[in-house]
Specification:
alpha+beta, 3-stranded antiparallel beta sheet, globular, transit peptide, Altered inheritance of mitochondria protein 9, mitochondrial, Kinase-like_dom_sf, mitochondrion
Amino acid sequence: MDKLNREFSRGFLLTMDNGCELIAKIPCAHTEQAFLASEVATSKYLRQYTSLPIPNVLAWNPDKTNEIGSEYLIVEKIYGVALKDLWENLSSLDRYSIIEKIVAMETELANLDFSAYGALYLRGSVPDQPKYYPLASERDCGESFCVGALYKLSQIDDNTESSGELTSYGPCQSIFHIHVILLYSLLAIKPSVENKFQAMTQVDFDPINETRALLEKASILISILTSDNRVQRVSKPSL
């Protein structure tokens, strides 16, 4: 078993007796059920309804009180080489070819439209969701998915295993509402985190307040843009 550590989770490469390799992922800190549920639903949806090479979800458990004491996700290993390890040695023709493939993937994702702005879930995977929107039948033939709330964890003050306070936003059918909600969630920076940032950076200007001011201006601009009928006609929820 090899460790594959990342910023938000710890990955483990599992080699079975028959040589099959799997990836097990455990979050670095306890999260909420909705986070893993949305990740699983998004992976399953993309694997089922797009041509993107998405690893198959083999097992998952969002209950932090299970037998291993943590949420976990097990997926099949996708074999290949990281593009960053090859890019410098590729010819211009090969680079253009890769860029075209990436654009094709982005186009495929952009062509997926959903019933509301929020996060994707398997129906019934988050039973305490107060509100959700089912996907249109042409986007979900098996009636397995829905759009529910976006969740955001507040900043924490230390390195404990607590993930902070959970706040939900949406789901919304209006582009104006979801953008304003997200902007104001970013404005909610705890004073303790702000003070810690100031101590770490030791700079003369105030980046936290400057960010707040920029976001407040952005919220005004978004209000103007989203009230325009032309913007509303071309805007749609997508991945």
